[in-house]
């Protein structure tokens, strides 16, 4: 059994969750001893598709012509397409039609969470759908003093500076406007949002929030490697106010980094994140403000250890074994 991990145009997605999911799959299959290739010209039994762009549709059609099995990883939904960039809400119904058209071509559909599985089932798709996490490389987020110092030096942080961080594109649904607004209530705390989206694609609400941001909000753009890993390990709080996700790889990265986590209480976390146990959850800005103040003052119990256990249950090694079992099941369809 050989798997073709179809990663053409991977560079286009490298700064998104889908791009990181592709990299995780390479490591997961390697860890599980699964025979795979990323060369579409090699022989294979199953092609694993992660995107819904034209090249992926062409690959699916080629696989079908050659009587190969097709696994489609459903990272996208209409719900997480909405409220992202300019005109995304107007385009969303057409995007949903495209998703349904593409997903129906799979012999099996994978998606990161039971929540996203439920959404895809609601589209009327009857192909087998399995929820399997994108996974997290625990070793990559182990505490490393060199990375911590690289982060603090890059942002010229003193030993006493408190930091609240987040990671994501400048999408409205990510809640970056709320992140900026909440930062106003903590003028002596650094609020750092890693990520970037071209101003030409951002909504007016996000544009206005960025233009009027207070001085304690730092927007360094997309930064990879030691600096962002050092941020995860050094910051006082990971605050992710996203309104919609299919999983949220950055949340797994935070949990693996053993940082305190605060997220918005939304459906995607049901069944794996629990308020006051392995993270903290709120819904409205005024409640976020109160909770951040408590967390920065250490007036809440520490949920870091329990949060790390969640990350361990979604380790690359665990996901590799799950994918191996799924491929074996697909071969029998």
UniProtKB/TrEMBL annotation:
One Pfam family of this chain: Glyco_transf_4
Ranges of residues in domain Glycosyltransferase subfamily 4-like N-terminal: 42-139
Keywords: Transferase
Signal sequence residues: none
CDD domains: GT4_PimA-like
Residue intervals of the Glycosyl transferase family domain: 150-308
Listed SUPFAM superfamilies: UDP-Glycosyltransferase/glycogen phosphorylase (SSF53756)
Single annotated GO MF: glycosyltransferase activity
Listed PANTHER family: SULFOQUINOVOSYL TRANSFERASE SQD2
Record-given protein name: Glycosyl transferase family 1
Originating organism: Erysipelothrix larvae
Phylogenetic placement of the source organism: Bacteria, Bacillati, Bacillota, Erysipelotrichia, Erysipelotrichales
């Amino acid at each position: 059994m050989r798997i073709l991990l179809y990663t053409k145009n991977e560079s286009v997605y490298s700064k998104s969750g889908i791009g990181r999911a592709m990299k995780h799959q390479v490591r997961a299959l390697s860890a599980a001893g699964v025979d795979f290739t990323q060369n579409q010209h090699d022989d294979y039994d199953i092609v694993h598709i992660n995107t819904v762009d034209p090249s992926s549709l062409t690959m699916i059609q080629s696989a079908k012509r050659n009587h190969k099995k097709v696994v489609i990883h459903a990272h996208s939904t209409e719900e997480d397409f909405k409220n992202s960039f300019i005109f995304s809400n107007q385009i969303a119904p057409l995007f949903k039609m495209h998703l349904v058209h593409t997903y129906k071509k799979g012999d099996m559909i994978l998606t990161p969470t039971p929540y996203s599985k439920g959404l895809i089932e609601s589209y009327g798709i009857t192909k087998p759908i399995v929820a399997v996490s994108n996974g997290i490389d625990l070793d990559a987020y182990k505490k490393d003093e060199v990375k911590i110092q690289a982060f603090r030096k890059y942002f010229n942080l003193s030993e006493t500076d408190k930091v609240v961080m987040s990671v994501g594109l400048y999408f409205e649904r990510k809640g970056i406007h709320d992140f900026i607004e909440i930062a106003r209530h903590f003028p002596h705390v650094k609020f750092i949002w890693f990520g970037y989206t071209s101003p030409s694609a951002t909504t007016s609400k996000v544009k206005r929030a960025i233009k009027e941001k207070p001085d304690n909000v730092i927007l360094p753009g997309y930064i990879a490697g030691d600096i962002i890993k050092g941020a995860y390990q050094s910051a006082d709080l990971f605050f992710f106010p996203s309104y919609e996700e299919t999983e949220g790889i950055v949340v797994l990265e935070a949990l693996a980094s053993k940082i305190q986590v605060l997220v918005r209480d939304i459906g995607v976390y049901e069944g794996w994140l629990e308020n006051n146990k392995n993270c903290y959850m709120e819904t409205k800005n005024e409640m976020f403000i109160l909770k951040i103040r408590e967390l920065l003052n250490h007036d809440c119990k520490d949920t870091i250890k329990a949060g790390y256990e969640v990350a361990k249950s979604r380790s690359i090694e665990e996901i590799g074994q799950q994918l191996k079992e799924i491929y074996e099941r697909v071969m029998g369809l």
